[in-house]
Amino acid sequence: xxxxxxxxxxxxxxxxxxxxxxxxKRSPKSTVRETVEKVKQHFGFKKNDFSMDSFEIxxxxxxxxxxxxxxxxxxxxxxxxxKEHMLVMLRSWVFTDWETPFVAIVNGQIVGMVSIMKTDxxxxxxxxxxxxxxFVSEDYRGYRISEKLIDFxxxxxxxxxFDRTYIPSEHIGLYEKYGYHYLKDIVxxxxxxxxxxxxxxx
Length: 202
Known about the structure:
Blueprint: H1 5-13, H2 17-21, H3 32-43, E1 55-59, H4 65-76, H5 80-92, E2 100-106, E3 109-117, E4 130-136, H6 145-159, E5 164-169, E6 181-187, E7 193-200
Antiparallel strand pairs: 1-2, 2-3, 3-4, 5-7, 6-7
Helix pairs in contact: 1-3, 4-5
């Protein structure tokens, strides 16, 4: 899918289903040009210049500088639907046993996160571990950082003896790219229906 600048500008002027479908929201305070730049970043039309040599993924531990940096990252990220919930989890550190968040770092800056959890937003205690809270900053999308975060979480799960992991999603064709396959529909605590995906990691 290719857009010229003027086409992107037309999309950016008014709310668009296309933009919403790709999780790009135009803030009432943002200009058309700012939204154009955001769309370019999201679809990979504009790339950040960084070497993958400067890229790393780290486990985040309680009461560390990295945990504080992760809280700051979440305070400022654009995923408004989960921001407050994630901040509560991090500030009260609800992670127990093998549960943990991970962060993707470029040049010392957090650019993405994921966590591995016993439970998620579903009344399904028999299903775990969940790969959850996956987010990559818009400026760093298009570099397969999501895939690297998922792979890192799965390798971690293997070390703890798990042979599969689960990811919930509303979308079709997203996590299949990372080796997951559809298992069944599941109902969340908000009474919405999502798709449950599973991947064998052994």
